[in-house]
Amino acid sequence: MNEAFVNASVKPLESLDMLSPHEVERLQDRSDSGVQSLFRQCALAVLNTGSDMDSTREVLELFKDFDVHIALKHQGVQLELENAPARAFVDGEIIQGIREHLFSVLRDLIYVVDELDEVGQGLAQSAQLTNLVFHILRHADALAPHVHPSIVVCWGGHSINGHEYDYTKTVGYELGLRGLNVCTGCGPGAMKGPMKGAMISHAKQRVKDARYIGITEPGIIAAESPNPIVSELIIMPDIEKRLEAFVRLGHGIIVFPGGAGTAEEILYMLSILLREENRDIPYPFIFTGPEGSEAYFEQIDAFIGATLGERAQSMYEVIINDPALVSKQMKHGLHAVTQHRRAQGTAYHYNWELFIPEEVQHPFEPTHANMAGLNLHKNQPDYLLASELRRALSGIVSGNVKEPGVRAIEQFGPFQLDGDKEIMLALDKLLKAFIEQRRMKIDYSAYVPCFELAC
Fold it and tell me: Hey, which of 62-66, 78-82, 126-130, 381-385 has the most confident mean pLDDT?
């Protein structure tokens, strides 16, 4: 692959024009405990917007000579870029949306490393973690009080086919016609399509305050660079806080076809909805895809039925090949959300009422020992099993595209997963279907499974 490189100095347009010397020092710290390498990786991902690569390692290798330095000038902050991807520039000037994303990364990393330790002191651990997510979103100016629920979270794969991608755009178009906003994982595929469709219908409806929110985390951003439609980029510290940000900020969820990452998101949501504390809290949850994707959702539904049971299957609705109906159902669901929050006197902008158990809030490190130690047995509450299955899928995502996971697989071989035979058979069938349908990676021809199941 041939790629041109650019050296440039970049200043923020509006926000984050001042940093303290201490903050600059932290961001320039190249030691193991510093955050410079993390900032470099996230900045590279933003500058590489539009790439069709989904491997963190490949991105970092291609741009191994890229570097970023932070300087304090009398006018404010300035980023010095060395050997940056040329795709981020036009006639020597950085694209404005990419400039905004660069400083969103800077904003969020500074806040995480310098301020979060002091947030939530004195609260119970679960409440403290929820408070952290709130503070990150508030600091990113993502919370809009006094606005009726309208944020639809869209989950789905980055490596979907063209037919499925076009369908996500049509669903986004229908959402935009109804004045709804879109929040995704910020990457390509099913994360880009709904935003692109909604952008057109928002223009038709003359919606002036449309929102295209992308929520990511450092471990995945290099493999899923932000798509250019994202207008609000938010970097959460880890996958668990990213998932909590989706369900706290969003008001309803639409799931498109995807792979292991999408299944992880589904299981995360089910681990919450299955809690008795959340039984009476409305939260629309719709699975949808075009004609021809029926098998995908039948496999997902069968897997959920075989592992978690009928109660879990009742938590979502499946609609095939009907974008208008998906949007109508979501609009109806958001009306119920509005009525409920009004009656309860709870906030529209952040779902404080939803109970998220502590066991799904703590980061899961997908080491070989932790993956082998997952409790994939039915002798536990369904919401706990959903959480364990979510961790299994999270580890597979890590082994597929995240640099630490890829290195661990190369060093120690595939992750080993064991549990009840019925669960292992259901998981084996699901993962094989993902591989056969080319849903694990964009470059499916080179895919080698990073896992082995004891079936």
Answer: 381-385
